[in-house]
Amino acid sequence: MIHNILRRPQVDDSYLPAKLPPLLRQLYARRGVSSRECELTLSALLRPDNMKNLDKAAAIVADAMEQQLAILIVGDFDADGATSTSVCMLALRMMGATQVNYLIPNRFDYGYGLSPEIVAVAHQQGAQLLITVDNGISSIEGVAAAKALAMQVVITDHHLPGQTVPDADAIVNPNQLGCQFASKSIAGVGVAFYLMSAVRQTLRSRNWFAARDLAEPNLAELLDIVALGTVADVVALDVNNRILVDAGLKRVRAGRSRPGITALLDVAKRNPQRVLAADFGFAVGPRLNAAGRLDEMALGVETLLCEDIHLARRMAAQLDALNAERRELEHEMQQEALQRLSTVQLNDSELPWGIALFQEDWHQGVIGILASRIKERYHRPVIAFADAGDGVIKGSARSIKGLHMRDTLELINSRHPGMIIKFGGHAMAAGLSIPLSAYDAFAEAFDKAVHESLQPEQLTGELLSDGELGADMLTLETALMLRNAGPWGQAFEEPLFDGYFRLLQQRIVGEKHLKMIVETECGSLMLDAIAFNVDLRIWPDATISHVRLAYRLDVNEFRGNQSLQLLVEQIEAC
């Protein structure tokens, strides 16, 4: 799909420090950066005082440590859940906890969250305090089952709550009613990190460390894991999240990352000394996620917990192999989904506004990525379903700007009671289960709800550009400046530029990537450029000599040398 390119307007940037380069000052101003946010320091992190129930939850955990109760961390089976689990495990061990373990539900056997079935497993393992991470806010039945078995429950989560919340001993979730914590976009791993920091403060006030001759741990040592989970969960990078991610990336670049993260970067062929947030999002995160998608997320957690680099490398290789398998599955499923849509893609008026897809042999662990790929292709909200057995199908939903996915599912649920068995999630992503028999009716209800929420122009897609760069700015120095000015990510977009170029050379590399040499219109500068995953029905085309590109500045590294490369998001013949 060719997106409309909209240029961001010029804004007043005079309030930002004059020492910033003019281009960077304007880019920051367009993204709403205040003068205080130009320096990302840990001292500027939001204080925990306004996080509802944080002190209460910390006291419960500290009590359990003093009483030597068996603590069990119950995590989610994605990268945020794995990193949240690892942060809690490592922090509690660093603080002297002797009875702490974790449990990640297998998505195929138990599904998501603290279910009654998982509570039964936890009880069999002797757990006395359950701490959920990246889940729990919708686990009403699971918490009730835990309480009936005399277990305490502390919920840490960041997902949007429903109309009712579980009767836990403490709920820490910035999105719960009455929580004044300003960063509503914090990831599950961020919430877990705040809880562990509060536990350390509580133990300090109780003289825990001095009485046991324990060195008080520096929890900043865990920020590389926090950064990984934050980026991999694609939460909005508000200033608080940017501080967390920036601090974690700095640890990696300084050679102080966890062996597991170092090993995952190595297997993904990323240089730890030059790691970017994008490397966590597109290289490390998918490999970690592959464990939960196709196998057991315990492999991902153990990789992050590992202290031995050699063992970590062996586990990272296993994750890499799982990721390759995941990619192959995803490709097959995407081709099947596109084939199903091919009957209507020639007539946009017939293409549903809200696309629902189901095939009984699709893999539960890959439908989320499939939904994302189809959404990117058609720029419409998508829900992909896979068979979950017993007459139930599970769906993974991805949305576009302007449609709040969880609210849309809430609307369908209110209109059609019983059609949705359960659901939860965010504005841009959600999960749900429905009866297989209700699929056709649900697909119709979903399309209708999307029609009511969106306007036709919202389905065309758009790229927000920071404008055209002059030849004097198309330099390696500019690219390095922008790379170091991040971290860039969700809701804090990496700068995108657009302009017209002469297309001098074009060839396909790596099966479907278009490698180009382009020249500025004034003819003063030739540049390397690459566009990934192009439509091979269109490119290469020797008859096209002029193009409009939407691109990012990329630092290409080869044999120790760095050079400027245009990373092309969109290419149009003109």
Q: How far apart, in Å, are the first and last alpha carbons?
A: 16 Å
Strand order in the sheet with the most strands? 3-2-4-5-6
Rounded to an integer in angstroms, the radius of gyration calculated over CA atoms is 24 Å
In round numbers, the mean pLDDT is: 94
β-strand amount? 15-25%
The count of helical stretches stands at 17
Question: Could you tell me the number of beta strands?
Answer: 17
Describe this structure in words.
The chain is an alpha/beta fold. Helices cover 38% and strands 20% of the residues. The chain is built from 17 helices and 17 strands. A 5-stranded parallel β-sheet has the order 3-2-4-5-6, with helices on both faces. The chain has a 5-stranded mixed β-sheet with strand order 7-8-9-11-10. Strands 13-14-15-17-16 form a 5-stranded mixed barrel. Strand 8 and strand 9 form a beta hairpin. The mean pLDDT is 94.
